[in-house]
Structure formats: C-alpha cells, structure tokens
Design brief:
The complex is a heterodimer of chains A (125) and B (112). With 125 residues, chain A is an all-beta fold. In chain A, 0% of the residues lie in helices and 52% in strands. In chain A, strand 4 and strand 5 form a beta hairpin. Chain B is built from no helices and eleven strands. Classes of the chains: A mainly beta (125), B mainly beta (112).
Chain lengths: 125, 112
Amino acid sequence: QVQLVQSGAEVKKPGASMRVSCEASGYTFTSYGIGWVRQAPGRGLEWLGWISGHNDKTNYAQKVQGRVTMTTDTSTNTAYMELSALRSDDTAVYYCARVDWYYYDPNGYSEIDYWGPGTPVTVSS
Amino acid sequence: DVVMTQSPLSLPVTLGQPASMSCRSSQSLVYSDGDTYLNWFQQRPGQSPRRLIYKVSNRDSGVPDRFSGSGSGTEFTLKISRVEAEDVGVYYCIQGSWWPPTFGLGTRVEIK
C-alpha cells in the first residue's frame, strides 16, 4: 500500500530555515512526483509546489518562489522541502502528496491521490 | 489560477439524512483529453486529506457507496446519501485540469 511518512514537528525562529522530509513506499517513486501543500491553523489548503520523482524538475508556487527548494533522493525514495527566511505566517501543517503531473504540457493535468500525515511547523520568536 | 468556490461553508446535518455540497470553478475543467480532473477529498479532524472521488464521479477504493460525485464543466456536486458520524470533517474540491492544482475553501460537515 502507498505510504508517505513525514518528519516530525519543528519549532523555528523567524528568519531561520526549515526542512521537511517525506519518505515514500508502496509504489515506484520515480513514476510519480511529490507535491507540497500547507494548511495554516484554521485555514484551507495552499499549494507550494511540485518536484518530479525522476528528473529533478520542479515547479514552485509564486508565493514561496525564492524561499523554497524541493529535492529528492531516489536512493531512499525521499522528497525534501526546504523553506528559508521563515516568518510567523509560515506557521502551518506541511503535507506532502503523491502527484502525477503531465508536465509536457505547461498546463497539463495533474492527479493528487495519497497524502502524508503532515508536519506541524511553528515559527515564533 | 483557477478559483474553486465551495458552498456552503458549513453544513449541519442529521445522522441518517442526506447531505449535498457544491463546487464551482472559474473556468471549465474539461481537459483537452476529454476528461475532467475534479476531485473530492475528505479531511477528518486531525487527519490528512483522503481522496474520495476522482474525475468527477469515480469513487476511490474503499470509499463507501453513500458518497457520490456529479457535475460537468464548471459545476460539481458531492452527495452523501445517509450521513454517518464518521463523515464529520471538511470536504475539499480540488481541480487538476489546469496547472497548478487549486483548492476550494472546504465545506465543514457537522452533526446537528
């Protein structure tokens, strides 16, 4: 069965960086991408970006462009998301999800299915 | 980006009664391959989202048949035929026909 296991909760100070990991199992990691989504307390879901599982292609949301870096390690089937210059409004639960994106078309369709359990990140001085 | 608008934001329901919620997109979700990539996810309290419905009306494996999705173009509906206590949570529509994927704000289902 498909599983996405995320790293544990983090507490960071403003201006610091965070890194969340997402270890995948139960499917061929290189056949799908990984998307990252966050949910601030009491708020809805916010798309952060996507990384391919096989060729390091990334696509970041404009809101976090310049502060976010997504990477993968295919030897351990793990995806990582790093967010720098943290602010209080980055406080949220960060989710990884399996995402299949037909990126040959810049507006290609995407399918999101399985999600990780989420990683709470608190940014506070 | 495509804007997804869900209604109502809150839906109090009686156990055993039906429930219905809507999702509207700012652009048609019919992709060039003819499919419509509109999904419904359930997020129970304290849990991560779980996909219930993909491509408008297809139930994921293990999803009870009391959940059904319908719609076309820009208007979509999720129905629960008889609400059970375990259905409490927030339901999100998520479109994948345009990049990037976008989400509605959710409909919160609660028991009266």
